[in-house]
Specification:
With about 625 residues, the protein is an alpha+beta fold. It is built from 17 helices and 26 strands. The strands form 6 sheets. Strands 8, 18, 19, 20, 21, 22, 23 and 24 form an 8-stranded mixed beta sheet that branches. A hairpin with a 2-residue loop joins β1 and β2.
Length: about 625
């Protein structure tokens, strides 16, 4: 239990920032409680100046006045780590929202809290060590079954030096029941439970890496998302970092849901940081009902950290740190974790508000001068780790950015772009034309394409990266021709250039776009991506003897319609084989025969407006 002092007093208040004075030493990032008549308001010390300190309060400070008593603890803001986290919806301080709603109603009372883990539930503990074993921090002593995973119970990560396992139990226990007893080098004995705590602002493997109890590895495998434009053109490494900036209405929420549902991650942590409450509720409901490709529903392997725009700003700033710490915990078990933070812009705005109330020197657009280092500090906690027992775990971080007016030059976006290695820029123009996912291939990039080249050469096809770059170059050439036609008209370009433009448009329509609401096209496994990419590439590389531009337009319009229907057809079905043969026949005849025209896959209104130029 934390020790505390009650001789601190409030001496000043500015919004949610409270200045306290104490006669005992104060610690930065320590937790405190401001006592008012009807509640104890939780806060965190941000700055210490002699016997005074400035603290942010995680609740509304209405009613707080000079002279109120303050209880200062010696503990930092920490996450409770143990079995029972999966399937939970927490606020930014790890209070379970469902438990609070059942106890206090749907309007959360100020200053209330609840245990992060179910204290009554009993877990069947299976020991994996015997008494007398010499152990270090992070060593596994047993497991419990949590959902479909084996949840490893480990020696506390902050344990210093080697300890001896004196005894270990088997049976069903709560998270507070002792399951083992250890003795340290000084002969002191203490109990080990299935729950431990870790400060959220400190990387969990920090001490383990320093003591060489785990090893950080270079990401060498991609995180499969089953979204063609991402997996093929802008891959994300497992254990890597990515960002999704985009304006309102560009489809960030749907894209996040698809990645969370179909990615190759074991655990998904969704941090809803400052988003609208209605959008967060919709996400939670979708996760609770969406079928998981791995079995069950998506929520079975998901943790939601929910801090909406209507909740206190200070708790919003803490929510991302809480989510990252939970992700690091499951990574230490050898699991692949995907953390999606939506949105880091709201998190940065919370820092800006707090910094302003602390009267710190502002940086660009009023953001704190340490914004860049804070963004880097969050994303640097991603990565691949090899634990002492040989398990490989990863934490992949993906943050969405909501720049005002879609301006990618604002500070949060620029700091993020300087940190992450995959940039998936969403375009309002593509979203307006219903080109989804609205990832703009002209501005997006991935530094992992070269980094993962050995993996692609071995598991997909030799020369895969070069083929992807060639088609990526085609999209830029097609856009340049389109911009020229906007000025000169169709008559201002040659038939060869017009054919190049049509090929680029074909690539966009049938491969870069994907229907999130189609049972087949919503998720494209990498094996089918390999087949589809090879077919698209072969069709684009062909030389077509078109007589004029009208024939070229009609041919690629028919080809796009057939290929879209091919995308909507399950692999190796009669329907799939039929559309594949129709594609081959169209290419062979250029559509000059009297064969019946292909069925259109989508309404003509959804075909690119670029084609209207012709």
């Amino acid at each position: 239990m934390p020790t505390s002092t009650l001789n601190a007093r409030v001496v000043g208040i500015t919004g949610n920032i409270v200045r306290i004075r104490s006669d005992v030493p104060l610690i930065k990032n320590a937790i405190l409680f401001v006592h008012i008549c009807d509640a104890q308001l939780k806060g965190e010390i941000l700055r210490v100046q002699g016997n005074q300190a400035d603290a942010q309060i995680f609740d509304e400070t209405e009613g707080v006045r000079v002279g109120n008593g303050v209880e200062v603890t010696d503990q930092m803001l920490s996450a409770a780590l143990g079995p029972g986290l999966l399937g939970m919806v927490y606020d930014g301080l790890q209070n379970p929202l469902q438990a609070l709603a059942q106890r206090d109603g749907f309007f959360l009372a100020r200053g209330t809290s609840a245990a992060a883990l179910d204290e009554a539930r009993r877990w069947k503990f299976a020991p994996s060590r015997k008494p007398g074993a010499r152990l270090r921090a992070g060593d596994v002593i047993g497991t419990v079954t949590e959902r479909r995973f084996q949840h490893k119970i480990m020696i506390p990560f902050g344990e210093l030096g080697e300890v001896e396992l004196c005894s270990i139990r088997v049976g069903e226990f709560t998270v507070h029941d002792p399951v083992a007893r250890i003795r340290d080098g000084a002969g002191r004995e203490r109990d080990i439970t299935m729950m431990q705590h870790w400060p959220v602002r400190r990387p969990l493997p920090e001490k383990l890496l320093r003591q060489q109890l785990c090893e950080r590895l270079y990401p060498i495998e991609p995180l499969g998302t089953t979204i063609r434009i991402i997996d093929t053109f802008f891959p994300i490494a497992r254990g890597g970092t990515a960002c999704i900036p985009g304006p309102f209405g560009a489809g960030k929420t749907v894209l996040q849901g698809l990645i969370a549902r179909f990615s190759t991650a074991d655990i998904v942590i969704q941090v809803a940081c400052g988003e609208r409450a209605g959008e967060v509720v919709e996400t939670i409901e979708d996760f609770a009902t969406a079928k998981d490709p791995h079995g069950g529903v998506l929520m079975d392997r998901t943790i939601v950290i929910c801090n909406t725009s209507s909740m206190p700003v200070a708790a919003r700033e803490a929510s991302i740190y809480m989510g990252v710490t939970l992700g690091e915990y499951y990574r230490q078990m050898g699991l692949n974790v995907l953390l999606i933070a939506d949105s880091t812009s709201r998190w940065a705005q919370a820092m800006r508000e707090t910094s302003g109330r602390l009267e710190e020197i502002p940086g660009e657009e009023g953001f704190p001068a340490y914004l860049d280092s804070s963004v880097k500090g969050i994303y640097e906690r991603a990565g691949v780790l090899k634990t002492k027992d040989g398990s490989l775990g990863s934490l992949t971080m993906m943050g969405t950015v909501s720049p005002a007016g879609g301006n990618f030059d604002e500070p949060v976006t620029q700091s993020t772009l300087a940190t992450v290695k995959t940039f998936l820029g969403l375009s309002s123009a593509r979203a307006y034309k219903r080109f989804y996912p609205a990832v703009d291939p002209l501005i997006s990039w991935s530094r992992y394409l070269d980094q993962l080249k050995p993996y692609f050469d071995e598991h997909l096809r030799h020369g895969w990266t070069d083929d992807v770059r060639a088609l990526s170059k085609l999209t830029h050439e097609g856009d340049a021709i389109y911009q020229m036609m906007q000025v000169t008209g169709e008559e201002g370009v040659t038939l060869g250039d017009y054919t190049t433009y049509q090929k680029a448009l074909f690539l966009d329509m049938v491969y870069l776009q994907q229907d999130a609401y189609d049972a087949v096209d919503a998720s494209t496994p990498i094996e089918r991506q390999l087949e589809s990419f090879g077919l698209v590439r072969s069709l684009i590389q062909r030389d077509y003897p078109f007589k004029d531009k009208e024939e070229a337009r009609q041919f690629f319009t028919k080809l796009s319609a057939l290929f879209k229907n091919l995308n909507y057809s399950a692999s190796n079905t009669e329907e799939y084989k039929s559309y594949r043969s129709q594609v081959d026949e169209l290419v062979k005849t250029l559509g000059r025969t009297a064969a019946a025209p292909a069925t259109e896959a989508v309404p003509e209104s959804q075909v690119s407006t670029r084609a209207s130029v012709a």
